[in-house]
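Work Package 3 (structural annotation) set out to generate three-dimensional models for the target panel prioritized at the project kickoff. During this period the team completed the workflow that converts sequence records into discrete structure tokens, so that structures can be stored uniformly alongside our sequence database. As a representative example, we reproduce one entry of 111 residues exactly as it appears in the project archive.
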Amino acid sequence: MKTFTDDEMNALLPATKEYNVVILKRGPSFSDDAAPAVIWEHGRRNFGLRDAGVLAVVLPVTDGSDVCGVGVFTGTVDQTVALMNDDPGVQAGVFTFEVHPCRGFPGDSLP
């Protein structure tokens, strides 16, 4: 692993961009009989948001905890909250969510 100097770090840090991390959690209707169909439509919507460039990273969490997924959105906090409020899983109470502003390097990707 390379060790970065202060000068190298100071040169790279201005390239960061604002993003929003959404933490998706189980909602009160997560165990309802209708939840699997709602989750499927939530996934379909995520495909559309990814295609539109609004949802940069989608990470379903598979450990059985109350955290169901993590997403990185490209808009403002208000835009991200509005998008999440329109999510079918959120509207059905299958999911709840938190939005946290963050910074990252454009072009970063999963290996």
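Helices lie at 6-12, 35-51, 77-85, 88-91.
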